[in-house]
From TrEMBL:
Residues 43-91 are annotated as: Disordered. This is Rieske domain-containing protein. The lineage of its organism: Eukaryota, Viridiplantae, Chlorophyta, core chlorophytes, Chlorodendrophyceae. It comes from the Eukaryota. The chain crosses the membrane at residues 497-515, 549-567. Its main location: membrane. GO terms for molecular function: 2 iron, 2 sulfur cluster binding; chlorophyllide a oxygenase activity; metal ion binding. Residues 103-212 form the Rieske domain. It is found in: Membrane; Plastid, Chloroplast. GO terms for cellular component: chloroplast; membrane. Keywords: 2Fe-2S, Chloroplast, Iron, Iron-sulfur, Membrane, Metal-binding, Oxidoreductase, Plastid, Transit peptide, Transmembrane, Transmembrane helix.
Amino acid sequence: MTTRVVSLPTGTSFWKVNRARVRSRHGRVTRLHSKRPFCLAAGRGVDSPAGGRPSHTAHAMPAGSTPRAVATDVSDWDTRPAPADSVEQGEVEEGSFQWTKHWYPIHALDHLDPTRPHHAMLLGRDLALWRDGSGKWQCFEDFCPHRLAPLSEGRVEADGSLLCAYHGWRFEGSGKCTALPQASKPVSEWKPSQVPCAVSYPTKELAGVVFVWPESGPRAAEEAAATAVRGFPEMLDDELQATGKSTRSSWAVRDLPYGWDFFMENALDPAHVPVSHHNFVGNRYQDPTFFNLDTVRPLTPAEGVAHRTDRPFMQKTGMGTTVLDFQPPCFVRIAAREEEGGPESNICLYATPIKPGYTRAIVCQTIVNGDVKGGKKPANSVFFQNALPKWINHMFGALFVNQDSVFLHHQEKIVEHRLRAKNVKTVDGYDMPTPSDKAVIAFRTWYERMSGGGVPWAPGSPPMPPAERDPEKLYNLWDSHVRHCSICKAALAKTKLWQKAVAVASVLCLFAGIATYSASAAAAVAAGSVAIPSNIASLPLLWHTPPTSSLWAVVAGALLAVVAWQLKRLERAFHVLTFSHADNH
Ligand code: FES
Ligand SMILES: [Fe+2]
């Protein structure tokens, strides 16, 4: 079997590749035939730089630690022991990956309430996101230059400034203070060098998402302006949407209780889908199957890696070909097409490292319409592109994500524990004998050998939180989504209102039913038309046939009580949405 390496620039459509142009990328690619099981531990399976590097601290990549270019034949992956090294690498540039020279998505624009500032986090830093008078979303470090009060607790004022609600200083979009009420003369009359400034970061609004550049200052603004956002044209370019070339769904945003690297592992791992998402997508008992992954873009520090499987990764699935494209530091594209020339489904997953142990996922689907007119819509579009209200899709998406959260949250803690216990520096203990894990192996290779030491958390970032065993806390939806989502907050407010209204209507109906029955019974007793056994003469009402109106009122009251109870449950679901695999039969 020949190792195939397709050279593709990031962002192109994989489906446009002319098979005749498939070629070996460069002469340095070699093939290994080691029969050791693959294990991502220092010194086993992959080369580890001398001394290794901790996963959650920022360091420059040690000189001379550039990994060698390797590739492997995958024909014998199906049986153990497997080939030791499955990672095909492209040209490796000098220097290590620069995490702070990239755009990171922070939020979906339609989830943000522009009338107030919002707290957000990026690389362990607290940020205040707000929309200024020109309509542009701005991002400040979340402290006021006066006495460090959080600006995200301030106010967006009618003049388009951000007001620190502690002493009333105001700031314009650039970060410059424009009003300081305790000063003897207006700030505009101060020397420019003396005017206080909030720390401001470059922002960009694209495809319905606000992106933040994690460095500040004039040089950062220049670098940011010259750097493209990760993604691909059919998703990012609104003109392509307008011309019908592609259709982007609305975005789902969620803060997940596990680290950025575990999110990426999960996104690059199609084998978990029918098992972890049993009954949602596939069946855990019938659908898992053997599949291989071919490299379509070799691993490099700057461009990541892409793999493709031409064999469905689930039994009974219509998806003929799937491509997993990791674009560091924050984007994964999962492209799938069911029929040649038909529409291509792209699950677009942004993952922003917000603080140790937490990742903000920002996800949508983009359908790239194919050459075949009226081709069959991708089956998974029903999850992303439907007529349901957005908040219902947000809730459903949260439930879907929760099916993985419990694994990834504890997996990260187990890995951390092993790192400490064994005093090793790279992920230890994975046993990946089948090619379904090749994209995960490639990603871990990137993270541990090319990423310059892992996510560069800001000094003073919060520590990794402990493992959470309480499902009420692990699946907290209020803090992880609803608090920051104006759509869900509005839906919750309406749900509360309806719940109260329906509960009151239920009580009124029941009361009306009883009252009309009592009146009718009393009239019947007075008329002497009720036959009452002498031994229970004190309960004459029970012997009166209720009028139809009373029955309807009681039935309506009971039904409304059930609706009110269900609305109460829905109200709770906006706060906690638990899931248990043991109960998902
Ligand atoms: S701390 Fe912000 S105005 Fe005083
Ligand atoms: Fe929402």
